[in-house]
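Fold this sequence, please.
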Amino acid sequence: MEPQGKILFKRTDIVTMRKDIKMLREFDTQKEAEKIVTPASANPAEAMEIEKQRAFTLKTEKEQVEATLKQLEASKESVLTKEKEQPAAVSKNVQLDEMEKRRWAAERSALEAKKRANEVEAKNKEAERQKIQLQEKIAQTNDALQAASAAINKQKNQPAQPVQPASSPAPVGENERRKKFMEDIEAWANSADKKS
């Protein structure tokens, strides 16, 4: 028969494996979320919406990582209290090391999520700046259009000046080409008469 502590250890191994599998699944979903490619769109509103969505997903990932970190700390505390109540076959140091490793991984992923959130926030600020610049350009273009339409309306209100048709003189080059062509035809006709 196996000691009672060893069976408890195996059950805790199963629980930790389940938690590890859950964390791997979350990591896979995170990787899939990162594979989303922004469309090559010239529309800044769509680009800003995409960046806002990314920022939201990063914030939710950050919250999830922080929640798992809290769960790990709570499970660490519960393991410590169970350890005090009933000694297990596994030493305290091994369990604490495992908990520290998990906590370190969770803290690292939380820092990465914060870093990504800061990057997205910087991109959002840049997109806002570009949006403001585009709005200024649109305002300038509207002002220019209004000035141009005012000038056109002003010209429409002025009386029209009579247009005099321009008499085009006969092109000098055209007459010379015709004269040369006629001379060439006469020369050819004369040469044909001489041969016969």
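The chain has a mean pLDDT of 80. DSSP finds four helices and no strands in the chain.
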